[in-house]
Amino acid sequence: MGHSKKINFILPFPTKRPNGGPKVMYTYANLLAEKGYDVQIYHSLNTSYTKYKKPYFIRAILHKLRKTSRPKWFKLNPNIKSFNIKKVSDDYISDADFIISTWWATALEVDKLKNEKGKKINLIQDYENWKGHEDKLLQSYSLPNTTNVVIASYLYDIVSPKSVKKTYTIFNAIDDSVFCVKNDIGKRKPSILMLYSNEKRKGTSYGITALIKIKEAYPSVVISMFGTPKKPIDFPKNFNYHHQPENLSEVYNSHAIYLTTSIQEGFALPPCEALSCGCALIATHIGGHKDYLINNETGLAIKTENINDIIEKIELFLKDDEYRIKIAKQGNHYFSTNFSWAKNIEKLEIIFSEI
Question: For the chain, how many structural domains are there in total?
Answer without folding.
Answer: 2
